[in-house]
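#dry-run=false #mode=assembly
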Amino acid sequence: MAEIHSKSSLLTLAILPLFVIFCINFIVAVDGKSQTFGRVLNPTKLGLKKEKLSHFRMYWHDVVAGPKPTAVVVAKAPTTSKSTNYFGGVVMIDDALTEGPQLSSKLIGRAQGFYASAGIHEAATLVNMNFAFMVGKYNGSTLSIMGRDKTLSPGVREMPIVGGAGVFRFARGYVQLRTHRMNLTSGDTTIEYNIYVFH
Ligand SMILES: *[C@@H]1O[C@H](CO)[C@@H](O)[C@H](O)[C@H]1NC(C)=O
Ligand SMILES: *[C@@H]1O[C@H](CO)[C@@H](O)[C@H](O)[C@H]1NC(C)=O
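#status=ok
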């Protein structure tokens, strides 16, 4: 019995310092004052209002032909031109976003970014762009969209909204897109965008 007792005392002596160190670490971690790089903020102090859900509809115009293209090829692989789906091609865009389906209708903003052919066996692009708004209280604010578009699909596609700035701070949501018009000779395309966003 005595031997067992002394063994457990030794064990307690060995564990006690570890326990004390653990407690000190725990207290330091819980005490926010020990951190200088981060703190908890009240959302109203940032001027944040109650989150709302907004819907916008607009038309995106990809002009590739003519003297003033808004979509230009900036990179491709040696094999891209021979690929049925133009795999590896990267196109930089500064496309007009308008209220109506005609390019001449009211300008709401511009879609700036790029899309890249990311499908070997199907026409699928990686789209990475910012919708820069230019009207009313949205002027100067942006929504960032990144997703996959099956460009030749006649149906509705969907891409995530990954964030936003200005009135769209903390944005999350999705866009639904449907090709409105495509000129297979020139490549010029108009796509209807329906945006659903919490912000
Ligand atoms: C949008 O903001 C820019 C820069 O602040 C300004 O020049 C332009 O007039 C504004 N446009 C509208 C429609 O308010
Ligand atoms: C399609 O593009 C070609 C070449 O730019 C042009 O000649 C033709 O008029 C366009 N078709 C339509 C319906 O706009």
